[in-house]
TrEMBL record:
Lineage: Eukaryota, Metazoa, Chordata, Craniata, Vertebrata
Keywords from the UniProt entry: Cytoplasm, Guanine-nucleotide releasing factor, Membrane, Phosphoprotein, Repeat, WD repeat
Assigned GO CC terms: cytosol; Golgi membrane; Ric1-Rgp1 guanyl-nucleotide exchange factor complex
Comp. bias regions, Basic and acidic residues: 1371-1380
Protein name according to UniProt: Guanine nucleotide exchange factor subunit RIC1
Domain annotation RIC1 C-terminal alpha solenoid region: ranges: 821-979
Region listing for Disordered, in residue ranges: 1319-1396
């Protein structure tokens, strides 16, 4: 409703002696002038600009006679002020303007500016008037005056001797006798025949206020009792007065009345405010609600505030300000929603956490339209003695001006657009429009004014980013030209699309387009100054509809202006009205108007195009008199036409009737009254008649729908899918939260039960103050005050007492809240599960729907599981059953459990089902991330064996699906269970862990020299551990000796099993990915599996599968090579041999220039040195360690590993070589695949799996690779079986190429000579140990075929596990020596992979 803005301003008072310090402030009825009292002076201030106009000083002699000034009261026409003094005198001052045409302050314009034109009323609007004060009359009442109240043409004065005086403004006592309070009868209600009197002598009125709409006085007596005194007839005498009082208030301190809502707010000594209303039938006082701080929100201060000192309602009666004796203030909406309180947060504490003294408020008064609050501040007891230091200026009493921004709903509740939040400040508007404002520079749309003290430093930009976050308002500065003569802004409205705004000031109106960013004002100022908008305004399509008073014609009118034409009465459509319009609202093509004679009038509005001008035509449709039901027209807060009725549209006889204006909603002083159309009569409608001529149905008598209503929202849109939400009526009820009047629909259009109600009122609480409802999106929008402390910037002691230090800077934040879970829960409580299901299904597409289900489950669980008493009818089983209707069930339950403490889990799973079953459901539904969350719950609720069993299941599934992140988490999880870490559950398994180098982690973390003899290799080279940010991989801890051996064995067995499966299914791409992602020691495992799983069983199938996996095209034969394939081949071989001595280096190039030439010439059979260096990052082009790595669409690493020939530029290529290269380029696969293949080739080569190397050599079609392998075979003792396998495999490939794939023939022809050599070698080589891996060491070898599985994998970067029963261990040194000898073909250089 109301929100604080910025810092308060301090007004410059003339500083004098303590006797001249201000003690009381009172604004005049128009709120343009303020009377400020000091002990012996009366000052008149002007409100805009806030300047002092005139001061009257009392002479010392008469001052001692009268005593200090106490209170002031204005005459309704602002021509007189009555001031009461301590010694029982009333002083009457006349205010007269002087000097004829002279003004105290005038605006000065440059010559020729448009403002200089003579406009009526121009001077008086613009200038601060020069006034004189003159004491005309002194009245001695001979008793201290406790209260002073202006009542119509009289002044009502209460004195400490228990008398009530009625005094005429001219200073006469009207000749009437003063009334003694003790003679007024008091009772509990007005129906009892006679009341009891206040039965003791010294009773008097301590505070009172007149309520015009109740026609009586709310009073507080000196003994703390409160009451309401009303004249029984029009005569004001003791016999004609009667009082009512509530029995339970005995500590009243002050009172304020709200005329619009007929409320009396009594401040109490306990610090709370009790708000009473009068029962219409009995006249008794009923407690409406209380305003009190809760221990939950303000634990340290809620009961230490002291008594309530002042209560003040805002000018529009929508909020109330409360202050306490102990200091501080709070702001509440009419029915008790707390908006601001300065006893907590940044108001009460400094940025270093120390407590501040609260602001003491001695007096306060609201300014025009509630944009300002004038406060006389006094800081505790310090205002008596003045210190000499300059810093004490703040400690003196002074006048502070608090600035407010308020919602447009407070003054224009019938704003036609109900989905935008529109706030109005005194010179600017705040909108929450989405799209139009997103293009704004956020700097220009800041919610706060630039603090001048910070402008020089760098604080401003920092302030903006921290204050606003992403929730920018769209701020529109109201046109200065319009504001100058029409301040303050009274109404504002925004159109349906949120693209145009209109504002109304003192006279006329102006409108603004958010698209063109331009204001449109009246061209003729006389027309503007001639109209006063009375009943608010609304948008209808492109038209502005408003009700106004025409000053020159003295006529009430209804006008419609077109937005696109010039703002001029010539383009307006004017309809005369009988009485003053108080409220106006638009519904579809109808305008509903509420008038001062308590009648409601319906108009139809339609667009008319007459020649060039487009106008709107308005016709009266229907008039309804409400004077029987409405005691006072001012009590009507809002009037709306809606399509909502007690019938929900199904039972209506005609479908289109459901969309008509079915009923009128009237908010009468907080009571929501509905009048529906009377459909009981015959429903005859002529087909041929004009729809506008048709007779509208009469309205039924009104029905009260709800109490304590502040705002009402409905929509006229229709949506078949979301009928529940769109046909509902939303109410905001202050402290009681919100209510929704929801329609209930039968399922599948069945006939509804006659005994079932068709609508239901559901209450629910939300944490924000609602300002708009998004119907389809199930969201409530609001705004909230946020504060920022700047006191850390003012470190100098002199600045310690500045306002910027004492008060935080206030900004307004946009907020929103979901309400769907409240409604679903309320429906389930009332056994309306079917309706809840229909509603939930209609909203299941909302992005936050999973959150809604989770919130509902969580709230019910917390309430029921922590309840002290047993719950007779628990709701949790119902909610659980309800959530199972949705596919998100498993996710919702586990997320809720993870956010709830462990103690409540048993209660939750008793209702939703066993977590083991839910885990299995997740696995069946392939929802592995959710299954992982269930695993953590199982780990806490079950024995370790059960969670290990489920973890194994999940681990295998995750391996199968290639979810590497999850796999890494599962490895860690399984280890944690094994090593007894299971007391602390691991962190959430769905979190992504960044792995920094994708496919090549393996390479980067090894430093091996293969050609040195293993004896002189330092041990540190092999115990090098992975240092990457992958705690879940086989990090050092996993392989270290002291970690749990059996657990690691268990994990290794699963990893080996998976690797074996991948190899058997020829899924090399997946294997590389698996090894790289999980840090699997591929080389050492391949060494052991060389003769078993790592054998190639069928070369042809393997070749085909690799082509498919790596998207590698099968080779084709180019035309030129058909004539002489062997010639090409021969040249190629020569080229290969001639480049034998060339050095090759693996460089980390990501430049595009190398991509075209990276493998134009393949490395020869003999390599010197290859350096691997990690790639530089290519930004964030692809996530490296994510589970999607190495699918066809994503790259193995950020960059690429490129083979570049250093001497390439010096070569001269022959024609045929070029031809061959171009052929090769044409039939090559993607660059990424090539990198991956070379990586795999390197690994297989190192592991000695030569048959796989041959297959990869074939697919890459590089004879040098084949040559290299053959050289190794000839120079090293190689397993005979492998040789045989390679030979038969190559023969099979040859046969297949001849039959199915001739593109391979040229390449096979090239390598034919080597193959012949190979077959010769095979026949010569017959080893006795042909079927055992070659080892140099003499350790005993296993005879079982799967022997190596029982040994820890012993590769680079690993330390083998200890001995396992029944199996010997080959020492690391021996095995590495063996491998070094196996590959000793790299005679000259060392093959060294070093981490850069």
């Amino acid at each position: 409703m109301y929100f604080l803005s910025g810092w308060p301003k301090r007004l410059l008072c003339p500083v004098g002696s303590p006797a001249e310090a201000p003690v009381h402030v009172q604004s005049d009825p128009q709120r343009t002038l303020l009377a400020v009292l000091a002990a012996a002076r009366l000052s008149i201030w002007f409100s805009r600009p806030s300047v002092l106009i005139v001061t009257y000083k009392e002479l010392a002699k008469s001052s001692s006679q009268f005593g200090p000034y106490k209170q002031a009261e204005w005459r309704p026409d602002s021509t007189m002020i009555a001031v009461s003094t301590a010694n029982g005198y009333i002083l009457f001052f006349h205010i007269t303007s002087t000097r004829g045409d002279k003004y105290l302050y005038e605006p000065v314009y440059p010559k020729g500016s448009p403002q200089m034109k003579g406009t009526p009323h121009f001077k008086e609007e613009q200038c601060a008037p020069a006034l004189t004060l003159e004491m005309k009359k002194v009245l001695d009442l001979q008793a201290p005056i406790t209260s002073l109240q202006s009542v119509l043409e009289d002044l009502l004065v209460a004195t400490a001797d228990g008398q009530l005086h009625l005094i005429h403004w001219e200073g006469m006592t009207n000749g009437k006798k003063a009334i003694n309070i003790s003679t007024v009868p008091f009772s509990l209600d007005l129906q009892s025949s006679r009341g009891s009197f206040l039965g003791f002598a010294d009773v008097h009125i301590r505070d009172m206020e007149y309520c015009a709409t109740l026609d009586g006085f709310a009073v507080v007596f000196n003994d703390g009792k409160v009451g309401f005194i009303t004249p029984v007839s029009s005569r004001f005498t003791a016999e004609q007065l009667h009082g009512v009082w509530p029995q339970d208030v005995v500590d009243g301190t002050c009172v304020a009345v709200n005329n619009k809502y007929r409320l009396m707010a009594f401040g109490c000594a306990s610090g709370s405010v009790q708000v009473y209303t009068i029962d219409n039938t009995t006249g008794a006082m009923l407690l409406s609600h209380k305003l009190e701080l809760t221990a939950k929100q303000y634990p340290d201060i809620w009961n230490k505030t002291g008594a309530v000192k002042l209560v003040r309602w805002s000018p529009d009666n929508s909020v109330v300000m409360v202050t306490w004796e102990g200091g501080g203030f709070s702001l509440w909406s009419v029915f008790g929603a707390q908006l601001i309180c300065t006893l907590g947060g940044d108001f009460a504490y400094r940025s270093d956490g120390t407590k501040k003294d609260p602001l003491m408020i001695n007096s306060m008064s609201w300014g025009a339209e509630g944009y300002h609050l004038w406060v006389i501040s006094g800081f505790g007891s310090q205002n008596t003695e003045l210190e000499s230091e300059p810093k004490s200026i703040v400690k003196q009493p002074g006048i502070l001006l608090f600035q407010f921004i308020k919602s447009a709903l407070t003054v224009n509740p019938c704003m036609s657009n109900q989905e935008q939040v529109l706030l109005q400040g005194e010179d600017r508007l705040y909108l929450n429009c989405g799209d139009a404002s997103q293009t704004q520079n956020p700097r220009s749309s800041s919610v706060h004014y630039k603090p001048s003290s910070l402008a020089e430093g760098g604080f401003e930009s920092q302030g903006l980013s921290t204050l606003l976050g992403h929730r920018h308002w769209h701020v529109v500065q109201i046109s200065n030209t319009y504001l100058e003569s029409n301040w303050p802004i009274r109404f504002s409205a925004i159109d349906k699309l949120g693209q145009n705004i209109a504002v109304v000031g003192k006279f006329g109106f102006a409108h603004y387009s958010l698209i063109t960013k331009k204001w449109k004002l009246f061209g003729n100022i006389t027309q503007e100054q001639n109209m006063i908008v009375t009943g608010g305004l609304a948008w209808w399509n492109d038209f502005i509809v408003l009700a106004c008073y025409n000053i020159s014609d003295r006529q009430e009118e209804l006008r419609v202006y077109l937005r696109t034409s010039n703002l001029d009465n010539a383009f307006a459509h004017v309809t005369k009205a009988q009485a003053e319009t108080l409220l106006l609202s638009v519904f579809r093509d109808m305008v509903v108007v509420f008038r001062a004679d308590c009648s409601i009038c319906l108009y139809s509005i339609e667009r008319k195009s007459e020649g060039p001008n487009t106008t709107a035509g308005i016709q009266v449709l229907q008039e309804v008199s409400m004077s029987r039901y409405i005691p006072h027209p001012f009590l009507v807060v809002s009037v709306t036409l809606t399509s909502v009725s007690t019938e929900n549209g199904i039972t209506l006889k005609m479908p289109q009737q459901a969309r008509d204006a079915e009923s009128i909603m009237l908010n009468l002083a907080g009571q929501l009254i509905m009048m529906q159309r009377d459909r009981s009569g015959p429903q005859i409608r002529e087909k041929d008649s004009n729809p506008n001529q048709r007779k509208l149905l009469p309205f039924c008598p009104p029905v009260v729908l709800a109490q304590s209503v502040e705002n009402v929202w409905t929509t006229c849109r229709a949506n078949k899918q979301k009928r529940h939400l769109l046909e509902a009526l939303w109410l905001s009820c202050g402290g009681a939260g919100m209510k929704v009047w929801l329609p209930l629909f039968p399922r599948d259009h069945r006939k509804p039960h006659s005994f079932l109600s068709q609508r239901i009122m559901l209450p629910f609480h939300i944490n924000i103050y609602p300002l708009a409802v998004l119907f389809e999106d199930a969201l409530v929008l609001g705004a909230v005050n946020d504060t920022v402390l700047y006191d850390s910037l003012y470190t100098r002691s002199s600045a310690r007492e500045q306002l910027e230090v004492l008060f935080p800077f206030c900004v307004v934040e946009r907020t929103s809240q979901i309400y769907l879970h409240h409604i679903l829960r309320q429906l389930l409580v009332r056994n309306l599960g079917e309706q809840a299901l229909l509603l939930a299904q209609s909203c299941s597409t909302l992005p936050y729907f999973p959150h809604v289900l989770e919130l509902m489950l969580h709230e019910v669980l917390e309430e029921e599981a922590t309840s002290r008493e047993p719950i007779p009818d628990p709701l949790l089983p119902t909610v659980a059953k309800f959530i199972t209707e949705f596919p998100l069930f498993l996710q919702t339950v586990v997320h809720c459990a993870r956010k709830t403490e462990y103690a409540l889990w048993n209660y939750l799973f008793a209702a939703v089902g066993n977590p083991k079953d839910l885990f299995e459901e997740c696995l069946m539904a392939q929802d592995l991330d959710t299954a992982a969350s269930y695993l953590i719950i199982l780990q806490n609720m079950e024995v370790p064996a059960v969670s290990r069993q489920h973890a194994t299941l999940l681990f295998n599934t995750a391996l199968e699906q290639g979810k590497w992140d999850l796999c890494r988490h599962m490895i860690r999880f399984l280890k944690a269970i094994g090593s007894g870490e299971s007391e602390t559950p691991p962190s959430t398994p769905t979190a992504q862990e960044p792995s920094s180098s994708g496919g090549f982690e393996f390479f980067r973390n090894r430093s091996i020299s293969l050609s040195q003899s293993a004896d002189n290799v330092p041990a540190s080279k092999f115990s090098l551990q992975k240092t990457l940010s992958m705690p879940s991989g086989p990090s050092g801890k996993r392989w270290s000796k002291d970690s749990d051996c059996a657990e690691n064995m268990y994990i290794d067995m699963m990893l080996w099993r998976h690797a074996r499966r991948l190899l058997e299914e020829v899924r090399l791409k997946d294997l590389g990915c698996f090894a790289a992602q999980l840090g699997f020691e591929l080389i050492s495992w391949l060494c052991k599996e060389r003769a078993r799983a790592a054998r190639v069983d069928n070369f042809v199938i393997a070749l085909k599968r690799l082509h498919k996996d790596f998207l590698w095209p099968l080779p084709i034969i180019p035309a030129s090579s058909l004539s002489s394939p062997f010639k090409n081949g021969k040249l190629r071989t020569d080229a290969g041999l001639s480049n034998v001595q060339r050095s090759q280096s693996w460089l980390s190039n990501i430049g595009p220039t190398h991509h075209e030439i990276d493998t134009a010439l393949s490395p020869g059979p003999q390599m010197q040195e290859a350096f691997l260096s990690p790639l530089s990052n290519k930004g964030d082009e692809c996530s490296i360690g994510s589970a999607t790595d190495l699918t066809e669409s994503s790259s193995m690493v950020d960059g690429d590993w490129t083979v570049v020939d250093e001497n390439f530029s010096t070569l001269s290529l022959t024609q045929s070589e070029l031809e061959h290269i171009s052929m090769e380029l044409a039939s090559k696969g993607p660059h990424k695949s090539q990198v991956q293949l070379r990586y795999l080739l390197h690994i297989f080569m190192e592991a000695g799996c030569l048959d796989w190397c041959i297959v990869i050599g074939l697919i890459l079609r590089e004879s040098s690779i084949i040559n290299q392998i053959l050289v190794i075979i000839q120079t090293t003792e190689v397993d005979g079986e492998m040789l045989q396998n390679i030979k038969t495999g190559l023969h099979a490939v040859d046969r297949w190429a001849s039959a199915d794939c001739p593109g391979y023939k040229p390449f096979l022809n090239i390598i034919k000579p080597q193959l012949q050599k190979l077959s010769e070698t095979t026949e010569e080589q017959v080893h006795p140990e042909a079927f055992q891996p070659v080892t140099v060491g003499k350790a005993p070898e296993q005879t079982s075929p799967r022997a190596e599985e029982s040994r820890g994998s012993s590769g680079h970067g690993s330390i083998p596990q200890g001995e396992v029963a029944g199996g010997g261990v080959v020492s690391r040194k021996e095995e590495n020596t063996a491998r070094a000898e196996e590959e000793e073909t790299f005679q000259d250089g060392t093959y060294d992979c070093c981490v850069s």
